[in-house]
Amino acid sequence: MILESLKTLYNRDLNKLKEEIGLYQNEKQIWAIDKNISNSSGNLCLHLIGNLNTYIGAEIGKTGYVRNRLLEFSLKDIPKSELIQKIEDTISVVNNALDSLTEADLEAIYPQIVFEKEMPTGFFLIHLSTHLAYHLGQINYHRRLLDF
Question: What's residue 48's pLDDT?
């Protein structure tokens, strides 16, 4: 039950991320920062892609992905179409990795120490889903405030 719920949530939110990026009328605004908004939607999108490809793709799905977190926040002006393709690729990676899990795997300890202590894989997958939703909300507000 939890696995199906996780798949539904990841697909819903990653497709919403794709939609939010696609809704920018002025592509340059994807990379805008203003006043106290220190992260652009583009950088938050790259951060989410890196995060999910690292913790779900590389660790669970064994994709071989190697993260460069600094680039997630320093790269600029990647075309909207390329961001959308990266999101679509991430959807595939997440689905393939989650499809490889069993309910018993969710009870097992996640293979990496992430928050300075061991945790069950299921708990960490829930955390990653809420992390995605948090930044998705920021991207939505960014677009509505700065896309002009």
Answer: 98
CA distance 141 to 137: 6
CA distance linking residue 109 with residue 88, whole number of Å: 28
User: How far, in Å, CA of 30 to CA of 10, rounded?
Assistant: 22
Question: How far is 131 from 64, CA to CA, in rounded Å?
Answer: 22
Nearest residue to 97 (alpha-carbon basis) of 87, 107, 85, 105: 105
Residues 6+ apart with CB under 8 A from 21: 30, 41, 42, 45, 80, 83, 84, 87, 139
Q: What is the pTM of this model?
A: 0.96
Residues 6+ apart with CB under 8 A from 90: 14, 48, 49, 52, 53, 57
Render pLDDT for 62-117 as a digit per residue (tens, 0 to 9): 999 999 999 999 999 999 999 999 999 999 999 999 999 999 999 999 999 999 99
